[in-house]
Amino acid sequence: MKNFSLFLSFTFLFLCPFLSQADVPELSREPPRPIVFVPHDGSKSDPQQVHVSLAGKDHMRVTYITEDKKVESVVEYGKQPGKYDRKTTGESTSYKYFFYHSGKIHHVKIGPLEPNTTYYYMCGCNGPEFSFKTPPSSFPVEFAIVGDLGQTEWTAATLAQIKSQDYDVFLLPGDLSYADTNQPLWDSFGRLVEPLASKRPWMVTQGNHEIEFFPIIEHTTFKSYNSRWLMPYTESLSESNLYYSFDVAGVHTVMLGSYTDFDCDSDQYQWLQADLAKVDRKTTPWVIVLLHAPWYNTNEAHEGEGESMREAMESLLFNARVDVVFAGHVHAYERFKRVYNNKADQCGPIHITIGDGGNREGLATSFKKPPSPLSVFRESSFGHGRLKVIDGKRAHWSWHRNNDSNTLLADEVWLESLSSSSSCWSSSQSHDEL
Ligand SMILES: *[C@@H]1O[C@H](CO)[C@@H](O)[C@H](O)[C@H]1NC(C)=O
Ligand SMILES: *[C@@H]1O[C@H](CO)[C@@H](O)[C@H](O)[C@H]1NC(C)=O
Ligand SMILES: [Fe+2]
């Protein structure tokens, strides 16, 4: 038997010399591709790097950057192109990093807005018109999800795939620009994602590439990330931009920080406990969590890096009957069974690693052998995921592998929310008591 499989592998290696690590043998694995640098081709007062994010009930935050510091933090908007019947003034910030001085970073919170509605807007009374669509207030709702995005030609391919099929909200579980202290790359990243991020809310959490600590020169961590990617943390009663939550239709989404304190006396832990206790599964039947370093991972890359956070926080998520945990960090795709404490558990979350956006470091190609019985599907290819929540009970998860100019549905599964699983809500685990 052993000899036979050895024989098969040798035959396979011989026939397909480039596919030796493949779990799915019909596709060759993508090598890293070069960085795409997107220049600013407007004037100093033209808004650039425009992106929108959810900012509490019925509100959105519009973020844009101008090189000209005299441009005001103002967004004009309305439901018809060119007709702006509303105008809101926001705030601005900027930062220095070694010799680099950022542009003026404007954050303008607008609303109240109607759900599932297109708004046209202009930033800083200048430049082109943009438009976004607000998410629906009820099911169905669709999320596009991918981490470790970077800004290579593969990133551009992933973004093109995401754009080609509509979605309501984009979720990014950490590692955005891979600027890695080279600040102009943050600006380039902002310009690369603008065609998507100005049209649909982009909700992000941070990865190790956002830390940007530099010995002697820069001791403030997450400086660029926090200045540019302001998320609704005050709106969700968090003290830090590094962890927060929000509701979309009937989905409560929690963004956690893998690189800030998470032990039981930390602010993050206390906040998470309080946030989960407030969840009403009648209003938000689905609860999903995003974080960067996976708690479950059978890739040799980053093995065990999420372990101390898992030990600290897994029981909180389990007791709250979280449905799915999405992670990045490992540059591959992997889907697990419902798990808790390293064992299959029908009341635990499904864990999914989706760190395959297309960054410059390339793919994590070595999965441990033999495969863990907890791991259902794993593959090292670039791509992105989609979570389409149909109603309070059913959702469809799919993983779309990049395939040159098109995309290929490579993994899919129907999920049922734990809110509708009566066996997971014994009287001692009623969510009123969490
Ligand atoms: C959102 O609007 C579109 C058309 O504009 C409609 O087809 C769809 O049903 C709406 N979705 C919800 C959840 O209301
Ligand atoms: C993948 O892309 C190639 C080249 O565009 C195409 O020939 C092939 O049919 C695609 N595969 C699938 C399964 O779509
Ligand atoms: Fe990472």
Keywords:
disordered C terminus, Purple Acid Phosphatase, chain A, domain 2, hydrolase, disordered N terminus, 8-stranded mixed sheet, alpha+beta, binds 2-acetamido-2-deoxy-beta-D-glucopyranose, Purple_acid_Pase-like_N, Immunoglobulin-like, iron, 434 residues
Describe the structure.
With 434 residues, the protein is an alpha+beta fold. The protein has two domains: 86 residues, Purple acid phosphatase-like, N-terminal (Immunoglobulin-like), CATH 2.60.40.380; 293 residues, Purple Acid Phosphatase, chain A, domain 2 (4-Layer Sandwich). The protein contains six helices and 24 strands. Strands 14, 15, 16, 17, 18, 19, 20 and 21 form an eight-stranded mixed β-sheet that branches. A six-stranded mixed β-sheet has the order 13-12-11-22-23-24. β18 and β19 form a beta hairpin. One 2-acetamido-2-deoxy-beta-D-glucopyranose binds next to loops. The site of one 2-acetamido-2-deoxy-beta-D-glucopyranose has 5 residues, from β24. One of its GO terms (molecular function) is metal ion binding. Pfam families: Metallophos, Metallophos_C, Pur_ac_phosph_N. It catalyses: a phosphate monoester + H2O = an alcohol + phosphate. Its cofactor is Zn(2+); Fe cation.
Give the SSE map.
Elements: H1 2-15, E1 48-54, E2 60-66, E3 74-78, E4 86-89, E5 91-93, E6 96-97, E7 100-101, E8 104-110, E9 118-123, E10 126-133, E11 141-145, H2 153-164, E12 169-173, H3 184-197, E13 202-205, H4 223-228, E14 244-248, E15 251-255, H5 267-277, E16 286-290, H6 307-319, E17 324-327, E18 333-340, E19 343-344, E20 350-354, E21 375-379, E22 383-389, E23 394-403, E24 406-416
Parallel strand pairs: 11-12, 12-13, 15-16, 16-17, 17-20
Antiparallel strand pairs: 1-2, 2-8, 3-4, 3-9, 5-8, 6-7, 9-10, 11-22, 14-15, 18-19, 18-20, 18-21, 22-23, 23-24
Helix pairs in contact: 5-6
Fe (ii) ion binds at residues 148, 175, 207-209, 292, 329.
Domain Purple acid phosphatase C-terminal: 348-406
Cofactor: Zn(2+); Fe cation
GO molecular function, one term: acid phosphatase activity
